[in-house]
């Protein structure tokens, strides 16, 4: 072979090697749909950009798809059109619907022994919600629970101990009466009129929302909306309202309205999500009052069972190549690893979902500098792991939430507690029956 022939061979060999290298370096492209709007969009985009930079073989594209309901519905529609994303952010009450859709695959399937051990780092009460039939189905991400926020300055003005918030229904009633009677605030307490709080108070009493062990031992076929535990919750709520101690914004599911009533000083106490801790810390500083937090109040004389994890998790769609599945698992484990759990908590107010992340923030002295975060952690870590705190699996859960909200609105408007709950129970059972028939 002549000189130019040898040069041509070297050139072709180099070209082939370069082509192989490019093929080997071809990115695995993933689409991630989420339901966190506002300032969270930029925060999530930054985290995704960091992942893409440190994992050059994978390219994740995050897309905000609207509300939780909108995101789940869009994913189901996209699957029918064969255009589904690789990951979908689904609220906790969409779990049964997500299972029934048939488009998702359990996260833990396909993980090696090391990664499976890594799952043990997720906080047990959180992982417990998303473990179905013994399988770790989806990855918890933005997790929360409700706590009591209170204005320490108003407590002092009313003659209450600013370092000892009420912990039971009776203590809340007594404190609210003292606040209103002393004119320290117009109302004693507020929280959004939302079924989520009812679900939490059921769990706190160790009570179930539905049969078949909250739908965990078998598909739920009836609800317990007129149980003694439900009657306790609704009766207390109504008494607070009737006595002029509970402030209602006038609209159901009005989270912003409840926040405004508290921040403006019209109420001394607020029950809302732990995800609002950062917001309320900033609001207290800007408005010049001292903020306190405490655990979710429980009925008098009852042992505290614990809360149901709120928020949402991330699900993997099935029918992907092995490379896509592996890349998806890599991203989700990275997104919720120890370091990013700390970053997520500090940047959003949602608590970390890993024990190791909790240990890091403790060792950093985070709680000493930010005491308002303490109540949420203590409440979560002390939660007993059982069917009540695991939360219910209900196909038409969003519809049932609306039914519960309607019943509470009727009750504070004057309807008899037991009558309203009995009617709600019938409506919810019919919704369950209709849904179950539709997925047979």
UniProtKB/TrEMBL annotation:
InterPro entries: Bact_solute-bd_prot1 (IPR050490), SBP (IPR006059). Pfam families: SBP_bac_8. It comes from the Bacteria. Gene3D superfamilies: Periplasmic binding protein-like II (3.40.190.10). The keyword Signal applies. Residues 1-23 form the signal peptide. Keywords: Signal, Transport. It is found in: Periplasm. The complex is composed of two ATP-binding proteins (UgpC), two transmembrane proteins (UgpA and UgpE) and a solute-binding protein (UgpB). Belongs to the bacterial solute-binding protein 1 family. This is sn-glycerol-3-phosphate-binding periplasmic protein UgpB.
């Amino acid at each position: 072979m002549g000189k130019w022939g040898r040069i041509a061979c070297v050139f072709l060999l180099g070209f082939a090697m370069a082509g192989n290298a490019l093929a080997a370096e071809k990115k695995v492209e993933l689409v991630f749909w989420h339901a966190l709007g506002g300032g969270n969009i930029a925060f999530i985009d930054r985290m995704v950009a960091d992942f893409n930079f440190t994992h050059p073989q994978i390219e994740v594209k995050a897309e905000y798809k609207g509300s939780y309901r909108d995101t789940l519905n869009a994913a189901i529609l996209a699957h029918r059109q064969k255009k589904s994303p690789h990951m979908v952010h689904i609220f906790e009450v969409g779990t049964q619907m997500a299972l029934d859709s048939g488009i998702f695959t359990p996260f833990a399937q396909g993980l090696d022994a090391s990664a499976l051990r890594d799952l043990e780092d997720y906080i047990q009460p959180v992982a417990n919600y998303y473990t179905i039939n013994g399988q770790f189905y989806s990855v918890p991400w933005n997790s929360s629970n409700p706590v009591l926020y209170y204005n320490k300055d108003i407590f002092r003005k009313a003659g209450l101990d600013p370092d000892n918030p009420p912990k039971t229904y009776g203590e809340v009633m007594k404190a609210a009466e003292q606040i209103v009677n002393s004119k320290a605030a117009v109302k004693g307490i507020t929280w959004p009129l939302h079924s989520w709080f009812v679900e939490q108070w059921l769990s706190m009493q160790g009570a179930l929302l539905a049969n078949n062990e909250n739908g965990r031992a078998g598909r739920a076929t009836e609800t317990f909306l007129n149980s003694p535990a439900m009657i306790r919750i609704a009766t207390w709520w109504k008494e607070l309202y009737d006595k002029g101690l509970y402030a209602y914004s006038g609209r159901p599911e009005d989270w912003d309205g409840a926040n405004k009533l508290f921040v403006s000083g019209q109420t001394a106490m607020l029950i809302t999500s732990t995800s609002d801790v950062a917001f309320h810390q900033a609001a207290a500083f800007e408005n010049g009052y001292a903020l306190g937090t405490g655990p979710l109040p429980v009925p008098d004389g009852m042992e505290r069972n614990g809360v149901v994890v709120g928020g949402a998790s991330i699900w993997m769609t099935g029918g992907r190549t092995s490379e896509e599945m592996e890349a998806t698992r890599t991203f989700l484990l990275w997104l919720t690893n120890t370091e990013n759990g700390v970053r997520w908590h500090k940047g959003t107010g949602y608590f970390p979902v890993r024990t190791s992340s909790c240990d890091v923030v403790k060792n950093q002295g985070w709680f000493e500098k930010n005491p308002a975060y303490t109540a949420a952690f203590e409440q979560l870590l002390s939660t007993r792991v059982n069917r009540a705190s695991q939360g219910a699996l209900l196909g038409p859960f969003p519809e049932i939430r609306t039914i519960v909200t309607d019943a509470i609105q009727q009750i504070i408007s004057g309807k008899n507690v037991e009558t309203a709950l009995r009617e709600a129970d019938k409506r919810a059972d019919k919704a369950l029956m209709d849904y179950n028939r539709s997925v047979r």
